[in-house]
Amino acid sequence: xxxxxxxxxxxxxxxxxxxxxxxxxxxxxxxxxxxxxxxxxxxxxxxxxxxxxxxxxxxxxxxxxxxxxxxxxxxxxxxxxxxxxxxxxxxxxxxxxxxxxxxxxxxxxxxxxxxxxxxxxxxxxxxxxxxxxxxxxxxxxxxxxxxxxxxxxxxxxxxxxxxxxxxxxxxxxxxxxxxxxxxxxxxxxxxxxxxxxxxxxxxxxxxxxxxxxxxxxxxxxxxxxxxxxxxxxxxxxxxxxxxxxxxxxxxxxxxxxxxxxxxxxxxxxxxxxxxxxxxxxxxxxxxxxxxxxxxxxxxxxxxxxxxxxxxxxxxxxxxxxxxxxxxx
Length: 328
What we know:
alpha/beta, Helicase, Ruva Protein, domain 3, 13 strands
């Protein structure tokens, strides 16, 4: 192993320790869901946004709020409702009679962490107000373009089982989320601990462990983590297989309407780097890519009616792709 990789490993171990401390702090409040918390930290390190889907009552909001409390950064929760307006998020201009001029009033999006709660409850006009902020890290308010604070992260939740009064997120917006995380019911042992923790008056507090400066430093280091060309070729093959499965001997073309976008390739590499860092390595292994493949790909592939009729899910398709493409 060359000297440069060794130096990256030493630095990665240091950052890994800090991130593990944040993970442990979140576990004071959140019972179980270890994998989801880990993926949230990977998204934070990768400077990406997260869409969390799960039925009500699975602590989606609590998890995001707890993460923000462990970080010494600004946090705001936006409850998305059908009567919300874009200006309620981004801000607007108000006429000031005293000096006869318009003044820009910034909206709640001007913070570090934005929790967009039940994002599919707001109409498309409001959902699209987040688009520029998520992609360009800036907001336009009636002709004025204002840069957002760094770090900036949108964590959105949606309920998959209730469709009345909801608006499906457009594909262009879904693609801007780095991860789509699916929260499932807790295990029985975890459920018992949840009952004990939240019905006996026990109050847990978390400490602020990372500052904005620390987060930006870790995000910059994540870009330096070494990913060999073979890793990049493996990622490109995974994404290409979602578009042209027949080239790789996969008999699933009839189930795929659209394959993953180039953003999938970028996020697969960045998330794999963050996963490597989390485990104290300054270089990427193929296992790092596999570990985050479902979260990166599942919302970037559209399936056909045939797939839906046969009960085939996106995760089933991703599994077949991962099994077929040879790991370098």
